[in-house]
């Protein structure tokens, strides 16, 4: 067998750069490059290997968590057909990536992490940043990745790499299993040489299979649909990752079945399709809430039924409701005691549609959805209206950005109150124009992810919408965008606090305690003094971005126009009202203190118990 002598790090990079994927006859390189921050644990191994392999592009970032978000956002925009490697030093560099790893796995997005690790040979232990254990020497902080990784391995001997690397690719390219993969390589092993088989580094193409469902299950699904009088489709992220948008829209057109959207599924169906009820669940529209409650059949496509989608298991109240779940992952397909149609969403929908014949939803049910669609569009126009009151409301800002954006432009957001407003209000006209991270609701995702989205789709304008709380947690990837000449437009809304959790605090009777950005009042001892004097525009300029300060919807629109003319990352700053919001139509469970001296908490607990009466088990 022909061999080549390489370090473990060199072999790793040489293998990764020769991995390709193919779906529907289209082939592309799987890894777009490597994000990394070097330190002891990876500088002499992976760092040196990247320096030698200049055709495997290295990107310098500012924070290890952020680079994982960037990689995940890139993978999301690429429908999971391409991603990045992320490498860190040992210790805090590695553990900084854990939040990003959890977000990627929860959102079913492929990323490969190569954290540095302590010495395998142990003779110099404990080394700087090593976690010591009195019960074993075979543990490091990298073991913390195990609960948030879909595949985890530690390479203690060079030969182990030969068996591990194909497993890395198997998981990353699996639509059913994908998520974060962690390959922990001790720093001495990274630099150790070995005679690797040349065959390991051949070009390998991994076919992304369109798994076909069991035909008996398909026929049963068709029977259930034909017997249904009030069916409802819930479209999730799997619809878009499968590229099933066209067949879903065809299904709706032919059958007249109403459809509602999860956060990740929003955009698969244009907002103005008459049967589109818009957002479903805790942040859903009025129409989606009403029709979900009445539906006798729910057809879930590529959704994992989070508590936001199901309104904490209160959304579906028909006593005879049944579920058909179309999902490539059996784990999700079986939820809610559903009929599990396990397979690729596009293939499954095509096969069901071919067998439905002349079936069409009852026209009265369809017309109910059409009426709700029209009513909601009118409400959105009302929310978007500039009321010329200062400070402006958050929904007015959403409206201004939505009206300005082109159909293929991307709005990107994560945690806080903005995702709920965007879920309800954003008028999607393209399946990739709505990019929300709400599986893990990761504060600080936005700017790093905006960078990844733009790298994936350089021909689209990326509008990152972020509140002051999230911005302060993770804004430094602005520097990376400037360094790489990558343009994103950041709309920074300052409401001097945590708007979302403040509202949640009010709902449980706690009066926004600890959620506003204020000086400590030494008279009361509480954080209820004046607002903190953060100069966000100066901060953005200090990081190399253009900064535009807006104080009204009119000046915001001008700022958007100015930002579009430039090829440089721009931050548009505007103050917004902390408390103005939008009506909700469904419940979301957050536990309320069962015992309290506060009347507001006692009342909130009574309301909590009433809402819990609607919760259901699906048996």
Primary descriptors:
6-stranded parallel sheet, Rossmann fold, alpha/beta, 24 helices, 619 residues
Q: In words, what does this structure look like?
A:
- The strands form five sheets. A six-stranded parallel beta sheet has the order 5-4-6-7-9-8, with helices on both faces. A six-stranded parallel beta sheet has the order 14-13-12-15-16-17, with helices on both faces.
- The protein starts with a strand and ends in a 7-residue tail after the last helix.
- It has 619 residues and is of the alpha/beta class.
- It folds into three domains: 3-207, Rossmann fold, CATH 3.40.50.970; 215-375, Rossmann fold (3-Layer(aba) Sandwich), CATH 3.40.50; 385-496 and 532-575, Rossmann fold.
- Helix 10 (245-255) packs parallel to helix 14 and helix 16 crosses helix 17 (418-425).
- It is built from 24 helices and 23 strands.
- The model has no long low-confidence stretch (mean pLDDT 95).
- Strand 2 (19-23) and strand 3 (26-29) form a beta hairpin.
Report strand %: 15-25%
- How many domain regions? 3
Class by SSE composition: alpha/beta
Strands of the largest sheet, in order across it?
5-4-6-7-9-8
What distance lies between the first and last C-alpha atoms, to the nearest angstrom?
A: 56 Å
Largest sheet: 6 strands, parallel
CATH architecture of the largest domain, please? 3-Layer(aba) Sandwich
- Shape estimate: globular
Unreliable sequence segments: none
CATH topology of the largest domain: Rossmann fold
The fourth-level CATH homologous superfamily of the largest domain is Thiamin diphosphate (ThDP)-binding fold, Pyr/PP domains
Helix fraction? 25-40%
Instruction: Supply the CATH class of the largest domain.
Output: Alpha Beta
Q: Let me know the number of strands.
A: 23
Q: Mean pLDDT, nearest integer?
A: 95
Helix tally equals 24
Q: What is the CA-based Rg, rounded?
A: 25 Å
């Amino acid at each position: 067998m022909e061999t080549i002598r390489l370090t473990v790090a060199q072999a790793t990079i040489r293998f990764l750069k020769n991995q390709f994927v193919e779906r529907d006859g289209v082939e592309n390189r799987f890894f777009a490059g490597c994000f990394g921050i070097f330190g002891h644990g990876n500088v002499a191994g992976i760092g040196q290997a990247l320096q030698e392999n200049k055709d495997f592009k290295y990107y310098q970032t500012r924070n290890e968590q952020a680079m994982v978000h960037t990689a995940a956002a890139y993978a999301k925009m690429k429908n999971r057909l391409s991603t990045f490697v992320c490498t860190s030093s040992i210790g805090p560099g590695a553990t900084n990536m854990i939040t990003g790893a959890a977000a990627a796995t929860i959102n079913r997005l492929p990323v490969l992490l190569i954290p540095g690790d302590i010495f395998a040979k142990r003779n110099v232990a404990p080394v700087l940043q090593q976690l010591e254990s009195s019960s074993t020497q075979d543990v490091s902080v990298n073991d913390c990745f195990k609960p948030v990784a879909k595949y985890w391995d530690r390479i203690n001997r060079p030969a182990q790499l030969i068996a591990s690397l194909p497993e890395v690719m198997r998981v990353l390219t699996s639509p059913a299993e994908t998520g974060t993969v962690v390959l922990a390589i001790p720093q001495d092993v990274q630099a150790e040489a070995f005679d690797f088989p040349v065959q390991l580094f051949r070009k390998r193409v991994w076919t992304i299979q369109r798994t076909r469902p069991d035909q008996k299950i398909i026929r049963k699904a068709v029977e259930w649909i034909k017997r249904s009088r009030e069916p409802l489709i819930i479209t999730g992220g799997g619809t878009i990752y499968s590229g099933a948008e066209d067949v879903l829209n065809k299904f709706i057109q032919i059958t007249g079945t109403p459809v509602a959207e999860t956060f990740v599924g929003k955009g698969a169906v244009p907002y103005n399709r008459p049967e589109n009820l818009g957002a479903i669940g805790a942040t859903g529209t009025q129409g989606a809430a009403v029709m979900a409650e009445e539906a006798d059949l729910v057809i879930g496509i590529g959704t994992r039924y989070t508590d936001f989608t199901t309104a904490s298991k209160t959304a579906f109240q028909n006593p005879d409701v049944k579920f058909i779940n179309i999902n490539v992952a059996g784990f999700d397909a079986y939820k809610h005691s559903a009929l599990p149609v396990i397979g690729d969403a596009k293939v499954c929908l095509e096969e069901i549609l071919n067998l439905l014949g002349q079936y069409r939803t009852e026209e009265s049910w369809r017309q109910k959805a059409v009426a709700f669609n029209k009513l909601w569009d009118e409400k959105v126009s009302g929310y978007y209206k500039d009321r010329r009151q200062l400070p402006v409301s958050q929904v007015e800002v959403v409206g201004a950005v939505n009206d300005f954006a082109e159909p293929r432009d991307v709005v990107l957001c994560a945690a806080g109150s903005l995702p709920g407003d965007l879920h309800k209000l954003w008028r999607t006209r393209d399946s990739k124009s709505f990019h929300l991270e709400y599986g893990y609701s990761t504060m600080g995702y936005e700017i790093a992810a905006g960078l990844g989205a733009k790298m994936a789709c350089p021909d689209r304008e990326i509008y990152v919408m972020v509140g002051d709380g999230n911005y302060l947690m993770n804004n430094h990837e602005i520097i990376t965008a400037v360094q790489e000449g990558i343009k994103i437009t950041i709309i920074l809304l300052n409401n001097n606090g945590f708007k979302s959790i403040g509202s949640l605090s009010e709902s449980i009777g706690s009066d926004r305690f600890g959620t506003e950005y204020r000086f400590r009042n030494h008279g009361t001892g509480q954080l209820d003094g004046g607002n903190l004097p953060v100069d966000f525009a100066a901060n953005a300029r200090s990081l190399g971005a253009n900064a535009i300060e807006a104080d009204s919807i009119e000046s915001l629109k001008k700022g958007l126009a100015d930002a579009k003319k430039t090829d440089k990352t721009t931050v548009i700053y505007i103050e917004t009202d902390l408390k103005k919001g939008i009506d909700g139509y469904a419940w979301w469970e957050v536990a309320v203190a069962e015992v309290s001296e506060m009347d507001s908490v006692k009342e909130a607990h009574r309301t909590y118990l009433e809402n819990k009466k609607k919760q259901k088990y699906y048996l």
